[in-house]
Amino acid sequence: MSGEAKLVYDDGLTAYDFGGGHPMSPIRVQLTIRLARELGILDQLTVVPAPMADDELLRTVHTAEYVDAVRRAGANPDVPDEQHGLGTDDTYCFPGMHEASARIAGASVEAARSVWQGEVLHAANVAGGLHHAMPNRASGFCVYNDPAIAIQWLLDNGAERVAYVDVDVHHGDGVQEVFYNDPRVLTVSLHESPTTLFPGTGSAGETGGPGAEGSAVNIPLPPGTGDAGWLRAFHAIVPDVLRAFRPSILVTQHGCDSHVEDPLAHLTKTVDGQRAAYLALHDLAHELTGGKWVATGGGGYAIIDVVPRAWSHLLAIVAGKPVDPQTPVPEAWREEVQIRFGRVAPLRMTDGRDPEYVDWSSGYNPGAWLDRSIKATRDVSFPLLGLDPTY
């Protein structure tokens, strides 16, 4: 056990529901919690209900105008508000939108508060990670930006330096936008290239605004990047920039839409590679922040075969008792999937892959798109953080 850990969760978090057929289904969170319970992971966590963020807390990141617009959208879901990104093709309106979204924000703040005030070492909100929401508009299925609100709470309550690492397949554009000019926050995002995937941002050259140069680190990855390439990029950049920044606390976003089976993107990671990333972030939290770690969910749209296993691994690591990848998926959970969805669920907590990678120190291959991307990020970001990109 690496220290007492908390999960902020109650069924109200799955009221965030854009309706049948939308990829951002609350079923993925429900199935995650049920699988984690069957595996005994929840027995290792203190589980507490999610408080609802009030307007004052939401307005630390979002404008008052936008919060009012979200409340109106939830009361009148048939009336789109394109100015605020509500009722668009990706972010539908639904009854109670404000309340459901504010509860997810409150859950992430509660996780951050629990860690920062020393109640637990680690805390998680797997329903969170809604990283695309902007201060005055919704975007990419995200209404309120819970990671940004949690980070702002940490800053307002004494955290001197907060590091945010986003491993979702999509660029963490909303969190970057909120803190782009704030040198107290380091945002690091590994994502599919903006030339091939929404939101079209996150190039290596986005490094932070005036007075905060080096506070944004972006690692755009080629389509088709799998476990070995993703982990090569991660280890070539993330540990070094976090060590240079010296964070007081680590906040992470764990969208698992980088998986090969995800229907909305083009990377080829496995659950095994995702688990390796979670373990690496856990270890960096213990190396650099005394273990202070806040983990959120994020994207992930292979809602049966991928999301529940990936996030159950995450919760087990948060709890300090990682699940062996060879562990059988509990039969009761597999039966529920068969009955509810007519699907044959995975047999084990692994995709049968060994997430090995070749370390950057082995040499640079200029003929590989991946290596050119890694080098571009190192070349522009490392000097701004006092690091040698050639090391």
Automatic annotation (TrEMBL):
The keyword Signal does not apply. The keyword Iron does not apply. Coiled coil: none annotated. GO terms for molecular function: histone deacetylase activity. One of its GO terms (biological process) is acetoin catabolic process. Residues 22-316 form the Histone deacetylase domain. Keywords: Acetoin catabolism. SUPFAM superfamilies: Arginase/deacetylase. Pathway: Ketone degradation; acetoin degradation. CDD domains: HDAC_AcuC_like. Belongs to the histone deacetylase family. This is Acetoin utilization protein AcuC. It comes from Kribbella sandramycini.
